[in-house]
Give the backbone structure.
Amino acid sequence: MTLTSALRDLAESDYYPFHMPGHKRNLPLLRKYGFLAENPEQTSPYAIDITEIPGFDDLHHAEGLISDAQKSAASLYGAKESIFSVGGSTTALLAGIGAVCQRGDEILVARNCHKSVYHAIELFGLVPSYVWPDVDAAGIAGAIHAEQIEALLMAAAEEKRTIRMLVLTSPTYEGVTSDIHQIAAICHRYDVVLMVDEAHGAHFGLDDPEVPYFPETAVRLGADLVAQSMHKTLPSLTQTAILYRCSERVDGRRLHRMFDLLETSSPSYVLMAGMEHCIRVLQEHRKELMAAYVQHLRGFYYAVRGLKVIRLWAPWERDLSAALDPSKLIFVLPERGAWLCDRLEKDYHLTFEMYAKDYVLGMTSMFDTEEGLMRLAAAITQIDQELQKGSGTGETSAEEPEELDRVQQMTGPKIRRLLPAEAVRCAAEAGSAWIPLDESAGRISADYVYAYPPGIPVVVPGEVIDEDVIRWIRTEAAAGCMLQGGSDGNGISVCSDGQECHGQGQPL
């Protein structure tokens, strides 16, 4: 079987996607709103795939069609300008960080940021300091609090350290948002640029402003830069994202130069046309689309209100001082996240975005169907009823969900011996070693280690490996989670002995 044939088989099957991209392969709606023409040949990617020819503008020097499309996106969300990224939010985050920070600058980063933020720190030779979110029993990270940011920036000012930028993720993969309005005000008092990774929140701020169901977008809450992945929660093709510049604290010319350096010189016109059309559909039809979306989600939550063993990680049940995104469907089942995900796919043909040790996460969008959500409600209810009877897994179930005993994703502050860029360079020049996990405590990591998805590093190059990291790796590997980077669950990549003498030793 080839990739092409596998994709064609999937398109012809009844598998329903509770994962990105947000168009959900919903061909009837894609045709209704003009993403696909009645004549398939007119919108075949091969028929409209071009390069920079006269009359079609150039993303790297946009003055015509692409410039107009970017202005429309900025107008929709209320930004000063927008820049299309055909490299996803990854390129947008790299460009935004590179536009603000110079080599050697200190940057404040939420520890639950995506790996692309860490790659920017490595690429530009920055000095990271971290702000750590609380993590609940299921391993789901909470909000970053304004009080945390205030304390850290105040301490930096007293120590005469200059922090150029704060980068945080809001919403998180699981839909937790931080108080961007307050955090932005604090950052600006200390002359710090705030960049928000809103990759999972491109649908924010598009519903009824009088009675909003979803949180407000960071673009309107005071952030200086906001990266949104259109393809995650909007009807847009994979890889499409937009970086919004929201204030004059960021030099627009430098930002464009960073995109010139980091984004392909041959951006896909297929992707850009899809982005433009998506923005136009939102401008003209978002009221009806969002109203139907909200109605479908409310119907789903009502349909699963009787779950007993599987716990729905629902917005109104969380004790977090933050807004939550109800579009994320999270089902908590202690120790059996992988089993639940596999069961939903094999027995019910429902494919989920990700699973962790204790939960399964499904993504929805305005292009989900009521039928699809009701299929999920029926499936999860049936599995829950089996678990109540003690069948389905061969294990006896409790009346109430058991308390979770989980090694958390956020394992706590680490000791840093090398900056990330130094560790990677030293590993390349002086060598690294692959050693058994049992022998790694106290050694310096030569690479990132993370479960993917979501791609949040548990250890960063240059940090000392501790028992928490080792325990986390073993737990995730035993749960069947996909580990990437410097560990396969049995061994780990470490720097050669003595390299710490050349770095910056300091606790984080």
In short: The chain has three domains: 59-282, 287-388, 415-507. Residues 316-320, 396-408, 499-508 have pLDDT under 50 and may be disordered. The chain has 14 helices and 19 strands. The longest helix spans residues 269-303.
